[in-house]
Amino acid sequence: MTDKAAVVGLRASGMSFRGIGEVLGVDQRTAARNFKRIMATNSYERKKGSGKTRKTTEREDQLIIREVRKDRMITSKTIKTNLTTLQVSRQTIRRRINECSEFRSQWQTKKPFISEANRVKRVAWCRHHPPRITHVHNYPILFCNYLF
Questions:
Q1: Would you state the pLDDT for residue 18?
Q2: How many CB atoms lie under 10 A from the CB of residue 11?
Q3: What does the DSSP 8-state code read for residue 123?
Q4: Which of 22, 35, 74, 85 is most open to solvent, judged by the fewest CB atoms within 10 Å of its CB?
Q5: Residues 63, 56: contact at Cβ < 8 Å?
Q6: d(Cα 115, Cα 25) in Å, to the nearest integer?
Q7: Read out DSSP for the chain?
Q8: pTM for this one?
Q9: 97: three-class secondary structure by DSSP
Q10: pLDDT tens-digit series, residues 117-147
Q11: Rounded to whole angstroms, how far apart are CA atoms 23 and 12?
Q12: DSSP designation for 14
């Protein structure tokens, strides 16, 4: 049961707002305000339109997502630079990208660079050194040096 629903239940049982506040760990005025709002609207839900207004329009959100689709590794700073009409913070751009379920955060893996000459030398070494077979607890285990 939520605190708002508990306020109605406790008030119906004859408890004062001061007592309700002590039981729920909120100020008595908060309990009274919640009770009054629930009785007026007949609902426990927030009023529609309450909360901070959205800084970007649906069109601007689409532009942000289009930039990310073009280049998955683009930064929010670059998006802000590319979209000059967009006057929002980089954090807001990151939030809009996270809202889109198509994109999930991921780390780019860094692979060591192996030149073609080094690759040829590695394959030659592997072909020159035959695989070794070792027995551990009577189970044969194959250690192979070949690159596939």
A1: 93
A2: 19
A3: H
A4: 85
A5: no
A6: 67
A7: --HHHHHHHHHHTT--HHHHHHHHTS-HHHHHHHHHHHHHHS-SSPPTT-SPPPSS-HHHHHHHHHHHHH-TT--HHHHHHH-TT----HHHHHHHHHHSTT----PPP------HHHHHHHHHHHHHS--EEEEETTEEEEE-----
A8: 0.46
A9: helix
A10: 999 998 899 888 877 755 555 555 555 555 5
A11: 15
A12: T
- Residue 79, both tokens: 């998006």
DSSP secondary structure letters along 38-68: HHHHS-SSPPTT-SPPPSS-HHHHHHHHHHH
Angle at which helices 3-12 and 28-41 cross, to 10°: 90
The domain locations on the chain are 3-41, 58-99, 115-148
Question: Alpha carbon of 119 to those of 131, 132, 143, 144: distances in Å?
Answer: 19, 22, 20, 17
pLDDT on residue 135: 55
Residue 70: Cβ within 10 Å count: 9
Which of the pair, 108 or 23, is modelled with greater confidence?
23
Q: State the Cα–Cα distance between residues 24 and 16, nearest whole angstrom.
A: 12
Neighbouring residues of 2: CB distance < 8 A, sequence distance ≥ 6: 44
Is the distance from CB of 23 to CB of 12 less than 8 angstroms?
no
